[in-house]
């Protein structure tokens, strides 16, 4: 992100991300990643999808679990925020997007605890609903709103995938282009169903995404923004390809 113009909206950048970013344990029907958080950040991942919760009344830490089977991922939210903040302390021109989904029987307690925890990092977090420019969030964690955690930038999921296939992509991107380029972060993901291995599906999905990225790389800068691409088991090569896509320089904000 170093060379991106300061006035670029965060929504106008194609951002490599991971789905269920910290689900490294639980067997073939649960595991979605092989890289640790530090490894993901180092290779270029800038969007993290994290599932947290409190499952017992005496539990003090906010644990990380997978979204479906609720396997503990040997990590807590405090450690996640610390590792991201340590990374940003070194890489001050970068930005990391973080989307939290709350689980368990004590969601209100979790939400209160998360907000308290965020307060400890208040100088390096963005929790506003509006979409920031790159200048506003260099060296910061940008929270994205979820169905269960309402603090953070507004965002929506795309429908680029239908039945595990990319369909009518050009037309769909055309329909959402104005939102992507100015005021709406969009997230594309295609998670496996509960009884399907994320790894087997990722082999098919990631090939399609790689072809899409290559196609957009050859297009003009006005057409190349795809928003956040959230993947299971992404390759370092695919992440690099994503980071080389140009932002969507839209006349709606370049003229301001």
Automatic annotation (TrEMBL):
<dbReference type="GO" id="GO:0006629">
    <property type="term" value="P:lipid metabolic process"/>
</dbReference>
<dbReference type="InterPro" id="IPR000909">
    <property type="entry name" value="PLipase_C_PInositol-sp_X_dom"/>
</dbReference>
<dbReference type="Pfam" id="PF00388">
    <property type="entry name" value="PI-PLC-X"/>
</dbReference>
<dbReference type="InterPro" id="IPR017946">
    <property type="entry name" value="PLC-like_Pdiesterase_TIM-brl"/>
</dbReference>
<dbReference type="GO" id="GO:0008081">
    <property type="term" value="F:phosphoric diester hydrolase activity"/>
</dbReference>
<protein>
    <recommendedName>
        <fullName>Phosphatidylinositol-specific phospholipase C X domain-containing protein</fullName>
    </recommendedName>
</protein>
<dbReference type="InterPro" id="IPR051057">
    <property type="entry name" value="PI-PLC_domain"/>
</dbReference>
<feature type="domain" description="Phosphatidylinositol-specific phospholipase C X">
    <location>
        <begin position="6"/>
        <end position="146"/>
    </location>
</feature>
């Amino acid at each position: 992100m170093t060379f991106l113009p300061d006035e670029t909206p965060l929504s106008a950048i194609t951002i490599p991300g991971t789905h269920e970013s910290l689900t490294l344990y639980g067997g073939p029907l649960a595991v979605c990643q092989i890289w640790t958080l530090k490894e993901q950040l180092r290779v270029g991942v800038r969007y993290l999808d994290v599932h947290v919760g409190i499952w017992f009344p005496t539990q003090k830490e906010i644990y990380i679990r997978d979204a479906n089977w609720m396997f503990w991922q040997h990590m807590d939210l405090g450690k996640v925020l610390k590792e991201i903040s340590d990374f940003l302390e070194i890489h001050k021109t970068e930005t990391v997007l973080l989307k939290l989904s709350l689980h368990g029987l004590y969601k209100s307690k979790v939400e209160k605890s998360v907000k308290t925890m965020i307060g400890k990092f208040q100088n390096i977090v963005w929790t506003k609903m509006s979409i920031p420019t790159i200048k506003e969030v260099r060296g910061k964690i940008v929270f994205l709103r979820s169905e269960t955690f309402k603090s953070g930038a507004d965002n929506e999921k795309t429908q680029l995938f239908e039945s595990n296939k990319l369909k009518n992509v050009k037309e769909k991107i055309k329909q959402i282009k104005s939102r992507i380029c100015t005021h709406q972060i969009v997230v594309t993901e295609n998670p496996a169903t509960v009884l399907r291995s994320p790894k087997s599906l990722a082999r098919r999905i990631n090939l399609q995404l790689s072809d899409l990225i290559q196609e957009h790389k050859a297009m003009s800068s006005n057409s190349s923004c795809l928003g956040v691409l959230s993947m299971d088991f992404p390759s370092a090569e695919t992440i690099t390809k994503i980071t080389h896509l140009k932002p969507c320089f839209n006349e709606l904000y370049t003229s301001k």
